[in-house]
TrEMBL record:
Residues 134-240 form the Metalloprotease TldD/E central domain. It is an enzyme of class 3 (hydrolase). This is Metalloprotease PmbA. It holds the Pfam family PmbA_TldD_1st. It comes from the Bacteria. Residues 247-455 form the Metalloprotease TldD/E C-terminal domain. InterPro entries: Metalloprtase-TldD/E_C, Metalloprtase-TldD/E_cen_dom, Metalloprtase-TldD/E_N, PmbA, TldD/PmbA_N, TldD/PmbA_sf. It comes from Pseudomarimonas salicorniae. Belongs to the peptidase U62 family. The keyword Hydrolase applies. GO terms for molecular function: metallopeptidase activity. PANTHER family: METALLOPROTEASE PMBA.
Length: 457
């Protein structure tokens, strides 16, 4: 790290700490005023966020956007009556009005036996270093230059890259306070950076588009712009002259960048809201197989530089490494305190969602899985939202490559892949070691043994 960047990080860290102290003081004052109005419990969150996004296309700047947001959200409980209100204005008069509104709402709502803060004994008391705060000086000119470099490198790969959907650089930083009437006060701060490029190969009706990107909490960890642009170009070129395939049942290999969606459906199906509403295809599956044998899914909220690392959840409950699936068997649900009470269970520190899922992998990468599958479909893009969490029915548009004799034969598009999520998850035959770590779900390519692929009749 050069001297100027180090100085900027030090100064930004001092400024963030000072501002967090101010927000903490506001939070404590709000809680005190809620108690004075007769609230039996209260919780308050304050946040301040800033960001920059630069978008270019065909060598020209299209947009430069700055954002700066802040807000206060408040929930009060009068017994088991709940009221919530929020404001984007931290002026004392606006905060006073927000408190009045939340208390008024609570006094007129019906009682809910499951309402209330998470148990005081579950509040976080230790705050491990998760290393997600890396402020860096990055102005609009540099952000534009990075995006232009990515696009230029991609367009230079081949004369068939005749157009662009654009390239973008994004950065954001945020600080937040969560406090409640148990005496808990937690501080969070984080940064994020991204760089992406989307290119178009071919001409007329034969055009094909594809993209590539990188993202992380530390700018220096991003791939260089040229490699992102070249990867986007190579992916677009590989999709030229696509064909369809004969409708039938085949093995389907989900490339790592799309495979994470399968585990997103799993998490949604075992989340408290879906369960207590009886709206999940995995009702009453605790202790039962939900994935193929040998597959583990573990939540790791304290992962350094993780995309969703946190010492506590949205209710202040302490997070910890926690298995979700072991050897294919569901070990727990994904619960906040409210859904846990509805189900007669205990919160799993997942108010606000899961934190950094790691899925066990095999020893083979995507290329080895392709060789082993012989004949079938490699999916590199999914379209649509065709997953029914109540029934598990799954049907989505797909594009990718047809595999013959263990090799990529030709690109394919305008396909539909279909099955049932329960069968698909239990039917996973292999997970590759080509892990995509650009999101909070770290997983490699996933081979599902058999699905319906609809192409030419």
């Amino acid at each position: 790290m050069n001297t100027s960047i180090a100085k900027h990080e030090t100064q930004s860290t001092l400024e963030a700490a000072s501002r967090l102290d101010q927000l903490a003081s506001i939070a404590e004052d709000v809680l005190s005023r809620c108690r004075a109005r007769g609230a039996s419990q209260a919780e308050v969150g304050l946040n301040e966020d800033a960001g920059l996004s630069a978008n270019v296309r065909m060598g020209e700047v299209e947009t430069i956007e700055y954002n700066r947001d802040r807000g206060l959200s408040l929930t009060v409980y009068f017994g088991q009556r709940k009221g919530s209100a929020s404001t984007a204005d931290l002026d004392p008069a606006s905060i006073e009005l927000t408190i009045d509104q939340a208390c008024a709402i609570a006094r007129f709502t019906e009682e809910d036996a499951c309402a209330g803060l998470a148990e005081a004994s579950l509040m976080a008391r230790e705050f491990p270093e998760i290393d997600v705060w890396h402020p860096r000086p990055l102005d609009a000119d540099e952000a534009v230059a990075l995006a232009l470099r990515a696009e230029a490198a991609g367009r230079a790969v081949d004369s068939r890259i005749g157009n662009s959907d654009g390239s973008s650089t994004g950065l954001s930083s945020g600080i937040a306070i969560y406090a409640n009437s148990h005496g808990f006060l937690g501080r969070e701060q984080g940064t994020s950076y991204s760089l992406s490029c989307s290119l178009i190969a071919g001409q007329g009706e034969a055009m094909q588009r594809d993209y590539w990107y990188d993202a992380g909490c530390r700018f220096e960890d991003l791939a260089d712009p040229e490699s992102i642009g070249r990867r986007a170009a190579e992916r677009a070129l590989a999709r030229l002259a696509p064909r369809s395939v004969k409708t039938g049942e085949y093995p389907v290999l989900f490339s790592a960048e799309v495979a994470r969606s399968l585990f997103g459906h799993l998490v949604a199906a075992v989340s408290g809201g879906a369960l207590y509403r009886q709206a999940s295809f995995l009702l009453d599956h605790l202790g039962k197989p939900v994935l193929a044998p040998g597959i583990d899914v573990v939540e790791r909220p304290h992962l350094r530089r993780g995309h969703r690392s946190a010492a506590f959840d949205d209710e202040g409950v302490a997070t910890r490494d926690n298995p979700l699936v072991a050897d294919g068997v569901l070990q727990r649900y994904v619960l906040g305190s409210y859904s846990a009470r509805k189900l007669g269970l205990t919160t799993t520190a997942n108010a606000g969602g899961v934190h950094n899922l790691e899925i066990s992998t095999g020893s083979e990468d995507r290329e080895a899985l392709i060789r082993g599958m012989g004949r079938g479909l490699l999916v590199t893009e999914l379209m649509g939202q065709g997953a029914n969490l109540i029934t598990g029915d799954y049907s989505r548009g797909a594009a990718g490559f047809w595999i013959e004799n263990g090799e990529i034969a030709y690109p394919v598009d305008e396909l539909t892949i279909a099955g049932n999520l329960r069968d698909m998850l239990l039917g996973i035959e292999a997970i590759g070691c080509d892990i995509d770590r650009r999101s909070a779900t770290a997983v490699g390519s996933v081979l599902v043994g058999r699905m319906t692929v609809a192409g030419d009749s």
